[in-house]
Design goal:
globular, 9 helices, two-stranded antiparallel ribbon, 158 residues
């Protein structure tokens, strides 16, 4: 089995039971970005996938990559496995990597947005994130001094 296939399987398993719950979906995030004026996205938000992230098409997120900043922690947790797998598969054609690391920052106090990182992700999910970051830094030659390397350092120093 190739490393990429193993890592995607690991991510899928770690995030298997994640649902959006009452979190902000990608369409609502785009509505927020447009100050509430994107009525097409408002209509799409009503029927968007909330139960199983594996049914979310990566292209949906690629087309709205800039609105990741408008997700809450539940929305971010729901879409993160889609984003990680897409970066593994389509790193060269996806803008998700750049916007992911703009959104995905953990403070020195261990907070992601307004919640503690360890309260947002369970142990398996945190391990999947670390493995993903290690993969980027050691197999895709991402700089350890870049956003992925800095996040990896912060997450593994706790």
């Amino acid at each position: 089995m190739k490393l990429e296939d193993w890592l995607k399987s690991y991510i899928t398993s770690a995030f298997a039971d994640v649902t959006l719950e009452d979190g902000v979906d990608i369409h609502t995030a785009k509505v927020r970005d447009s100050y509430g004026f994107d009525h097409d996205e408002s209509r799409l938000a009503v029927s968007c996938q909330r139960g199983d992230w594996r049914f979310v098409e990566p292209q949906l997120l690629r087309d709205r990559a800039w609105v990741l900043t408008f997700l809450d922690t539940k929305g971010f947790r729901f879409y993160l496995p889609v984003i990680m797998i897409d970066i593994i598969d389509e790193e060269q054609t996806s803008d998700l990597a750049e916007t992911l690391f703009y959104k995905f920052s953990v403070t020195h106090e261990g907070c992601l947005m307004d919640k503690r990182y360890v309260d947002v992700f369970n142990r398996s999910q945190r391990a999947a994130v670390v493995r993903f970051l290690k993969y980027l830094c050691h197999n895709r030659n991402w700089q350890l001094t870049g956003p992925a390397g800095k996040l990896l350092y912060r997450l593994t120093q706790r």
